[in-house]
Amino acid sequence: YLRVQNKKLYLATFAAVLGPLSFGFVLGYSSPVIPELRKINDPELRLDSNQASWFGSVVTLGAAAGGILGAYLVDKVGRKLSLMLCSIPYVFGYVVIISAQNVWMLYFGRTLTGLASGITSLVVPVYISEVSHPKVRGMLGSCVQLMVVTGIVGAYAAGITLKWRWLAVLCSFPSCIMLLFMSFMPETPRFLLNRNKCSEAIASLHFLRGPHVDHEWECRQIEASVQEEGVNLSEFKNTSVYRPLLIGVALMFFQQVTGINAVMFYAETIFEDANFKDSRMASVVVGSIQVCFTAVAALIIDKTGRKVLLYISGIIMALSTALFGLYFKMVLPNQNNSSNPDVWLTLNSASPGTESSISWLAVLSLGLFVAGFALGWGPVPWLVISEIFPLKARGVLSGACVLTNWIMAFLVTKEFHDIIGFLTSYGTFWLFSAFCCLNVTFTAFYVPETKGQTLEQIEAYFTRS
């Protein structure tokens, strides 16, 4: 029965997750392109170290703005149209990059693609959660993160052979295909019912569930929880609003302070220490690990539940970041008094051969961390925030969470060098390990299990509590 009814649901999900695929290409684009632009002959386009860091991190600022814009669009124009509209800054951003004549045009193009990524990261989880059946919502929601990491790997792999302008051309394709496919997909029944469009909501359910289901019964179930759109400041004192908001913001905060950006920052250095001479291929290997374990999470999340994966993921990441700290403590035993946060210089100043002799420890830590993150703290927070917010405030509350995530991503990316200078490399990774332990504690006490529940049941749970 479920297999029959879900065929077109999978089609709608595929159309939506082309957005996260575009988002992944945006994130992965900088990794192969920055080394190329740092060596380019054109002085107007050549990047120095500071410009290279901005080229990578300005996307997060654009995405933070996209989270705010997405919060407005998703409630005003709907989930479907928001996704179609975000393809415009994706394509226009890449057009600016392709035609760039100076560094500022590169920044502008990256900011536009970041803006589109912020809208995508908010709207797609909401769209998928609202069209999905409870028994497959976890799997389909996890496909968001799966497509993000697939896009990252795709950009890494394509960057091995393509120059930066041609890579930008390739990266613009998924958003164009999304625009085409989404034009044939339905709006979510919950949004339509919130606009009192009952006949259109039934037509949407007919597409998503098939003809042999009682669409009117499901409409009545949704209508019972549909309230007038919008949320007043006074309503934030209600547990049905403020409690899921606090949980969502905390999940986004903890996802970034696990140290994922820091570990990926070290990845190229670690693989070179382990005699992986082709650093670009090493990046593909790391990305492939993410894809594999995110796919595993998607397949098992509706059976194991959300909290179990967060527990397992947090414990694995706590152990692996502790091992990372041990690695740098052994490689850089005299770094306590060093004010130089540059990883390359500090590794080169270590005792000759020290880092190579224990490089297996760093590679093991890297593999464990990436696998652990992909298994839980990568996909699950995005899935949970798409499930726990009340319909009337879903856009606003999701926007607050996306804004938190991208601001934290920017701070971790830009201030990482300063943190190392203050705490040393091993101290920084042990701090990340402590945060991972805190993640597990937070999950145990505050994150609700949403496996197998309808969105209306989840909303009722927060209302009762």
UniProtKB/TrEMBL annotation:
Gene3D superfamilies for the chain: MFS general substrate transporter like domains
Pfam families: Sugar_tr (PF00083)
Protein's cellular compartments: Cell membrane
Family matches, as InterPro entries: MFS_dom, MFS_sugar_transport-like, MFS_trans_sf, MFS_Trehalose_Transporter, Sugar/inositol_transpt, Sugar_transporter_CS
MF annotations from Gene Ontology: dehydroascorbic acid transmembrane transporter activity
GO biological process, one term: D-glucose transmembrane transport
Keyword Ribonucleoprotein: no
Topology of the protein relative to the lipid bilayer: Multi-pass membrane protein
Primary site of residence: membrane
A cellular component term, taken from the record's GO annotations: plasma membrane
Catalytic reaction equation(s): D-glucose(out) = D-glucose(in); L-dehydroascorbate(out) = L-dehydroascorbate(in); alpha,alpha-trehalose(in) = alpha,alpha-trehalose(out); D-fructose(out) = D-fructose(in)
UniProt keyword annotation of Cytoplasm present: no
Segments traversing the membrane: 9-34, 54-74, 81-101, 107-128, 140-158, 164-185, 245-267, 279-301, 308-328, 358-384, 396-413, 419-447
Domain Major facilitator superfamily (MFS) profile stretches: 8-451
SUPFAM superfamilies from the UniProt entry: MFS general substrate transporter (SSF103473)
Described purpose of this protein according to its UniProt entry: Insulin-regulated facilitative hexose transporter that mediates the transport of glucose and fructose. Facilitates hepatic influx of dietary trehalose, which in turn inhibits glucose and fructose influx triggering a starvation signal and hepatic autophagy through activation of AMPK and ULK1. Also able to mediate the transport of dehydroascorbate.
Stated family: Belongs to the major facilitator superfamily. Sugar transporter (TC 2.A.1.1) family. Glucose transporter subfamily.
Name by which UniProt lists this protein: Solute carrier family 2, facilitated glucose transporter member 8
High-level lineage: Eukaryota, Metazoa, Chordata, Craniata, Vertebrata
